[in-house]
Amino acid sequence: MSLRAEGPPPLPAGSEAAPGYRVISHLHRSNHYDVYDVFSEERACRCVAKVPIPREGNGRAVRRLLREGTLLRRLAHPHIVRAYDVIREPRPAVILETLTGETLSYLIDTAPRRLPLREVACLGIHLCSAVHYLHRHGILHLDLKPSNIVSERGFAKILDLSIARPPGRARRGGGTLQYMAPEQVRGGGLLGPATDVWGIGAVLFEALTGEMPFNREVEGEEDPETYEQLERRAEPVRSHRRVPASLARLVERCLEPDPAQRPAALELMRGLEPFAG
What we know:
Blueprint: E1 16-18, E2 21-29, E3 33-40, E4 45-52, H1 59-74, E5 83-87, E6 93-96, E7 102-103, H2 104-110, H3 117-136, E8 149-152, E9 155-158, E10 168-169, H4 182-186, E11 190-191, H5 193-209, H6 245-254, H7 265-276
Antiparallel strand pairs: 1-2, 2-3, 3-4, 4-6, 5-6, 7-8, 8-9, 10-11
Helix pairs in contact: 3-5, 3-7, 5-6
């Protein structure tokens, strides 16, 4: 297991990730968080605990985690991961439902051939449903990408609302480079529902083709002037895979540089329905 961030080693099996939640195994370490498979004494079942890496200077990550947990506790949607508990003391943690599927990024990377069109269309419908719900509640996800989506027997769930927030002016440093909409990259502009539609489009492009629409690795200090989203349009879907022209165009509309030219989430969902069977 590769640890991407500095800090003390993950908690060993048998220790407490939070009061009443005993570690079964360490699942993942990101830049700011550890994720554990834990056993809940209260529920007598397995759950997932997301905790900040204990180190100096991680206060912002703690605040994001607690905000994410509080948000998830008040949301209820079949395609968004559920939060059971938000713990502030003595160690901040958010307790989430256990998902038994695989991340979409894993499925794309390990599939012997590209994902069937029907599965991709169903995935898109689930994402549109969840994103429409978030938008109805005044929330933008802002970090839609294959690693933040789990597929359980063809049923998609969105993870990681750590940078989710209401529509408004863009802040620098939020999101994942290859999946950020141009207005997210620039900073200072207005972010709205169309920003998440771009994220859905980027996910669908990769699910269909096996390729990210924008994949430049920026070395050293990140200079937004070098971001591909600001330099070119996404390549046509059909340059990577022969799919129905109407489906390709639907995905490409999500990746329009002008947010006003992108479809709304419900319009996108309706356009995907004929391909889902």
